[in-house]
Known about the structure:
This protein is α/β, with parallel strands linked by helices and about 400 residues long.
Amino acid sequence: MSDYTIMVGDCxxxxxxxxxxxxxxxxxxxxxxLSFMSKxxxxxxxxxxxxxxxxxxxxxxxxxxxxxxxxxxxRMAVRIEDAGFEIRDMIAWVYGSGFPKSRNIGNDVDGMDxxxxxxxxxxxxxxxxxxxxxxxVAANVIAYGTGALNIDACRVSPTGExxxxxxxxxxxxxxxxxxxxWMDDAEHVAAHNAKVTVNVDRASRLGRWPANLIHDGxxxxxxxxxxxxxxxxxxxxSSENSGxxxxxxxxGARRLDSGSAARFFYCAxxxxxxxxxxxxxxxxxxxxxxxxxxxCETAEWSTRNGNSHPTVKPTxxxxxxxRLVTPPGGVALDPFMGSGSTGKAAMRExxxxxxxxxxxxxxxxxxxxxxxxxxRQQELxxxxxxxxxxxxx
Length: 393
């Protein structure tokens, strides 16, 4: 069974107490530097010194995934890079439920009706970085177990369908400028087609390769994907479930009636159930569905909602990210733990977890959520063991 450690205090000081090369991954949702809800801890993105310590405690080749805001992603990435990390990529979590904090200029300037100050927030970038390898990737994996990505464990939506394309004869068309001498060699073409068929069959069986895009399945996001060929299924609203695309999907599931986005991992924003599991809370929502930012800022979070943290990430999302970069049974670190979504996800995935949190109230919430997940996994394991016994009786 997975175990965890929660340390309360300033993460820089706590990280300095940890031994070198002692964790396998860092997956974290740090401050974005946006002064969100006037919180002091969100005044700036973490200093380079924090990322230097993350680099030190990571094993060679270990990966770091750090959420950021679109306005301050550049500052986050530069500081991570300045600490000595290699920036490998950027993952985008795209969602449809954000709302703009925009001022109507028409209230202040005559003739400026329809002008505002902000776009609707629809994605959060995740900096994807790696501690430099020692030797080759293979040598690093052999020595430390880190350096590679768990692709097969993060493939998206296995299906039995193949990619379409080609003319009526079944032959692939040759776009202008793509003619090659080997295309006129029948044996070479046959060998090439056989190789492609094997690869496509494998991809269809295993599922889509994980991409640097994650979406929430909302109608706004689904509508943003074109009905283009090569995406396994066409986007359509003909299904009886149209209008609620995504909200009844399990994470990573694929819907044939909205297939253009199906090649990406799906994860909606945090549900009330997810954020409050293991805590005493009211069933009533804290704010109305059409609440403004001011409504959210003044809501009675502490009295009506067990989890008072304002920026809770979905457990399913954190589990997916952990699974991608953490070797089996490995140790995952979150230096900005908040209410513990990363730790909760680590327990679900069978990883060990170390979390740092400066606020004791949030640390207590994290403990309750993580303990609840451990109990849940124990119950699921007991049920599985019982089924095994029954099946062999």
